[in-house]
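The aim of this short unit is practical: by the end, you should be able to scan a pair of folded records and say something sensible about each. We start with the first protein, listed as its amino acid sequence and then its structure tokens.
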Amino acid sequence: MNKIIEYIKEAYNELMNKVSWPTWLELQNSTTLVIIGSIIFALIIFVMDLISDNILSTYYQKISEFF
């Protein structure tokens, strides 16, 4: 049981004294960057989906006219 208590004390000490936590401004900037990146990535996927849908629709239409 002493090993568990010692482990918890050392983990707490490391989190409080050795870990560098971001400031509120750094956290806001990182969050903004992630949101913008996610929106850009979603738009790229949306455009790729539209293009592939258009290509496949045209292809299937041409195939159905052929047969």
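Turning to the second protein, read its sequence before its tokens, just as you did above.
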Amino acid sequence: MAKKTKRADFDSPWKEVLEAYFPQAMEFFFPQTFALIDWKRPYVFLDKEFQQISRKSKQGKRYADKLVKVYHIQGGEIWLLVHIEIQAQKEDEFPERMFTYNFRIFDQYHHSAISLAILCDENRKWRPQTYSYNYPDTELNFRFGSVKLLDYDNRLAELEASNNFFALVVLAHLKTQQTNRKPQERKAWKFSLIRRLYESGLQEQDIRNLYRFIDWVMILPKALETQFWQEFKQFEQERSMTYITTGERIGYERGQQELGQSLVLRQLKKRLGELPESVLTNIQALSVTQLEALGEALLDFTTIEDLHNWLQRNLATDD
């Protein structure tokens, strides 16, 4: 069960890497939309605006969603609603949710939006692209852009040869899926991908950013993680390149977060009984600071509704 908990936290690294390399993500996944955008002008992540349109959505599964303001090459704003679907099974309501978010943007801000979905799940047959209904006097056909990461698993050589940062992101994600229950193979791929960062001639900050994604998604058992770091430190020393000096710190922060989750969950279960899966998923998404705040707040909880309200307030203000 512990392994599933770690796997469920895919949304955080995806959000981080999408923000760090948004133009590269658009060029890699949606080249036609990329070509419409004037990249000489700054783009802006509209976090507050997205919170307004998503606040009424059901609590439960976490998604990596971003609303971004860019500029058309011929002038004028374009709003992009980029959704990264991480869960591993089909969700029948997903096309409706894509339409609902698009409509809410138009209804609340009088801005049309380009809706785009990156599907990271493991269901090859699930390929949502439209939401529609048809009556004698009313018809709707909403289509959104959609890419499936699994489609790249027979294009590994192309990913390895690409200069786009998101090729490496996709490769790390696919190898994480493919090495499920194969820890030794995952360790080998993790080492290979991070070593490739050093050998690619990237800037130090880019190496750190991409390392953080790889390290976060390619979780290893503790014994193998320790072995991995011993080998990687030796690799750094041999090349006199110690770019990833944040490795132990990130590992420490993740350990502190997992410890905080464990303590808070035990306290909540004692106070409120067994918790719904949706609540567990939201707690897994909390930062160390938020977990500390929840540890204090739960002393005043008397019902599960108190916990729901606390999570709704805090998740709504921390995107």
